[in-house]
Amino acid sequence: MDRPTDATTELLERLVGIDSTSLRSNLGVLDAAEDALAGTGAVVERVASDADDRAGLLVRIGPDVDGGVVLSGHTDCVPVEGQPWTSDPFAMVERDGTFVGRGTTDMKGFLAAALAHAAPAAAAAQLARPLWLLLTWDEEVGTVGAGPMTDALVARTRPAACVVGEPTLLRPVTAHKGVRSFRVVVAGRDGHSSRPHLAASALVAAARLVAHVDDVAAEHRVAAADPSFDPPYTTFNVATLASGQAINIVPRRAEITMEYRPVPADDGWDLGDALHDWGEQHLVPGLQAVDPRAGIAWERGTWVPALTPQDDDPAEALVRRLTGFEGPAGTVPFGTDGGWHQRAGIPTVVCGPGDIDQAHQPDEWIAIPQLAACERFLTDLVADLQA
Predict the structure, then answer these.
(1) pTM over 0.85
(2) In the CATH hierarchy, which fold is given to the domain comprising 6-176+305-385?
(3) Alpha-carbon gap, residue 221 to 234, rounded angstroms
């Protein structure tokens, strides 16, 4: 069986053993990364976040010139609570040609190969252009660290390409959907249920808004805006609706959380703004007829920019040249840090080891030959940077 080097395997085992699940500290992962880079001569910089227990890592190996290539990865992974694991999620085990453990495929396998294999190889080579490593925080809860890390990167260099190492079976992905989320609070007027005409039910107004969101979602399903995606349209999800105190009280408050995941053509806040405007037109007047203080407050939440395919994309061309992949570039319905990199003007492609079908699952695993193939890809990338 084709296997990765011991250095990559050992670092992956260490990374899996660090519980960096969402909203926990990722500093242990950064410590492991810095240990792996010791002795390489890499220029290593921690980039602070708004939280004391999370940060990003920006690494340069090679000359301080523009035109390098960035390997981008996130350091967090999703929680394990409630999942039927058959082994300790944070103790990597080898099983039937795979490495099993939380984060093996999403995406500590890529990080281990980049840090333990690509970085030392780049340090030993005479690079004409630099190799950059960019490690972000809290990607799984909304690509939180990607924007600040991208800002830090472009303040120092203008890369020629960026490879986001999310699991794609090492095939190029050039487009993904975005994410826009909202928290919506409806304020009405409470009252006794025997006299509902004197009250303004926030719950009823919220239910009408939810029904309208579902109608808009149906319109987008019919439109099928982008057949390259599965599903081929912008999707909507009303995640929660909370309201009410007792059976004999008309609710004065309701709270909704919702999101939509736009295809690149729909990417932006416009759809959310249209939902807001519909509520102002169709719901707020009725609420304020009872109480002028009533209304609907909208709070923007998660923002994950879509990744949009580009003509003559140098990042896609790089991955095709190094992997020999000749098929059509892929699309994925989930978001990545890549949209932030592209928004900053960096040509970006998603390509990494493992299969997304194993991500976020109990007994998450990565096929061992995939890690070995990733190492070969990174070896060829280092050689390309010498030209």
Answers:
(1) yes
(2) Aminopeptidase (3.40.630)
(3) 7
